[in-house]
Write a structure and sequence with these properties.
Distance between the termini: 38 Å
Number of strands: 15
Strand order of the largest sheet: 3-4-5-2-6-7-1-8
Helix content: 25-40%
Order of helices and strands: HEHEHEEEHEHEHEHHEEEEHHEHEHEHHH
Largest sheet: 8 strands, mixed
Oligomer: single chain
Shape: elongated
Structural class: alpha/beta
Radius of gyration: 24 Å
Length: 416
């Protein structure tokens, strides 16, 4: 059971109750820093409100995926509800949950709003309320459809998210217009989570940099600007390690007209070192190479080392097939750009990966890889000086991050 609550968490839990000055609001928005305690407080308050105010009604719990709803929301909220005397029945295959307290029962449907097609999933259902966790990651069409389904008298909207850029549609339409929507807006920082100690707060402060620091540590809706890896300097470049690597892998960003970048990674003492690279710019050389030629370059880069897997650009279908036919174990890389950049920054700053002296093209790109400031409401990087950056990002997202989470490389790389 929660023993200590911050004032802001208490407000989230009570804003809808009879004695609250905010009880007439139609919505609540909780945004701000990561690990600030907003999601758990909002999820618990939503369930308590639904069970206190309604009987036999339907509600929606929404995340980017139904799996994220279970992981981020229900895994923390359900044990607390159980301690308060609630019981529940869940049908995982049908994505619904029935909550009961005494003779009172309501149904909570789980929805994932991962892309524009998701809006159709929630059409047709009548709701008494909706909670949208990670709302800034959902398409506007899904959010608006979810809100439109709340037609029961007394229905309310509940939102939580970490900030994105100030051009994001949710910031413009809901944060900036909270008063117009009769929405209570609460911005959380890590100080609003009593369960976090100072060491944990300092670790998160080290993990993020630039715009991500302002968003996920300070809780600001800030624009991405300048260099993507603005912290990277010569201190992050190391000589080749001594001794024998325990594992070897290769990462690949493939291009025909655009450059192709291959990185050779060896694991030494628990750290992945990018010890060598191959980089070819067809425009500069005025000659394109074939898939077979690139496969030969990859084999030359590998030498006589036993390569566990080639983590490759998922869009390079013909090159991937060429490598498979030549006997390579090929894995399609995870390719979410912005989350991959965050993971790569974390891996560099915390010494999970090291760039070695021979990787001069990668070092050059670290000093030139920039955000596209003309991209409007989306975080977008400029499509230049990004080829070594992509192969490094593929490797971190597909190999390093799953290992850090305790899962195996193979579990993290299975093609879907």
């Amino acid at each position: 059971m929660i023993t200590t609550l911050s004032p802001k968490q208490r407000l989230v839990l009570t804003w809808w109750t009879g004695g609250s000055p905010h009880r007439g609001q139609d919505a609540i928005i909780c945004d701000g820093a990561v690990r600030s305690g907003k999601t758990l407080a909002l999820g618990l308050s939503f369930c308590l409100w639904a069970m206190c105010r309604f009987q036999g009604q339907q509600f929606a719990l929404c995340g980017k995926t139904t799996e994220s709803v279970r992981r981020n929301l229900l895994s923390g909220v359900l044990p607390l509800l159980e301690e308060l005397g609630f019981t529940w029945e869940e049908k995982v295959s049908r994505n619904w949950l029935k909550l009961r307290l005494g003779r009172r029962e309501n149904t909570f449907y789980l929805f994932g709003g991962k892309d524009e097609t998701s809006a159709s999933l929630i059409q047709g259902v009548t709701l008494a309320g909706v909670l949208l966790d990670e709302v800034a990651l959902m398409p506007r069409s899904f959010v608006e459809q979810a809100c439109a389904r709340c037609s029961v008298t007394g229905a309310r909207f509940w939102f939580s998210c970490n900030p994105e850029g100030p051009g994001h549609w949710f910031y413009r339409e809901w944060i900036c217009k909270a008063r117009d929507h009769k929405a209570l807006h609460l911005r959380f920082t890590m100080e609003d989570n009593p369960s976090l100690d100072d060491a944990t707060k300092e670790r998160y402060a080290r993990t993020f940099q630039g715009a991500f620091y302002r968003r996920f540590v300070l809780g600001e809706w800030s624009a991405a600007e300048g260099l993507v890896y603005d912290f990277f300097d010569e201190a992050y470049v190391k000589p080749l390690p001594e001794g024998e690597a325990s594992r070897w892998m290769i990462s690949c960003d493939y291009g025909t007209v655009n450059p192709t970048s291959l990185g050779l990674w060896g694991k030494f003492g628990g750290v992945w070192y990018r010890v060598k690279e191959y980089y070819y710019d067809a425009r500069e050389a005025r000659r394109q190479q074939t898939d077979q030629e690139y496969a030969r370059r990859l084999r030359e880069l590998a030498g006589d080392r036993e390569i566990e897997a080639v983590v490759a650009d998922p869009s390079a279908a013909s090159f991937l097939e060429t490598l498979r036919r030549e006997g390579w174990n090929v894995r399609k890389a995870k390719n979410e750009v912005v989350s991959g950049i965050r993971l790569t920054a974390d891996a560099l700053k915390n010494g999970k990966i090291v760039i070695c002296d021979p990787c001069q093209d990668a070092i050059r790109e670290f000093g030139s890889y920039c955000w596209d400031l003309k991209a409007g409401d989306k975080d977008t990087v400029k499509k230049q000086f990004d080829h070594a950056m992509d192969d490094i990002r593929y490797f971190v997202a597909t190999v390093v991050e799953p290992e850090e989470r305790g899962s195996t490389f193979w579990a993290g790389c299975v093609e879907r």
